Amino acid sequence: MNKRPVVISVIAIIMLLNGILTLVNGYRFQAHPVVLALGVLALLLSVGLWMLWSWAWVGTLLLQFAAIGYALYDWFTGGPIDFLAMIIGAIVIIYLMREETRSAFFNRQSLPVDNSS
Predict the structure, then answer these.
(1) I want to staple 35 with a disulfide (CB 3.0 to 4.6 A). Which of 27, 31, 46, 94 is the partner?
(2) pTM score, two decimals?
(3) What pLDDT does residue 116 have?
(4) Element (H, E) at 93
């Protein structure tokens, strides 16, 4: 099993807290079902990141790109500027794209080649 980088542990914990807060606040304020689904997605991705499952790496990247895109859309349509979402999303994307992080999710070690023939 691959060793989980500390940064991935931190991102997984942040995603877990984000998922819990999204679900609690979504339920409390009777948010749209999409908000609740995003909370569940964040919880699933946090577990996947913790376990170093490759689908969680892809899903987290997509979720962060979507969060940045939504923050930019909201900003350009006159809504509040969510710099925190954009900064955190960018940091997560940068760390997920680093070679040592990717190799933790996708073991890129090649098998030895037998050249005896």
Answers:
(1) 31
(2) 0.81
(3) 59
(4) helix 83-97
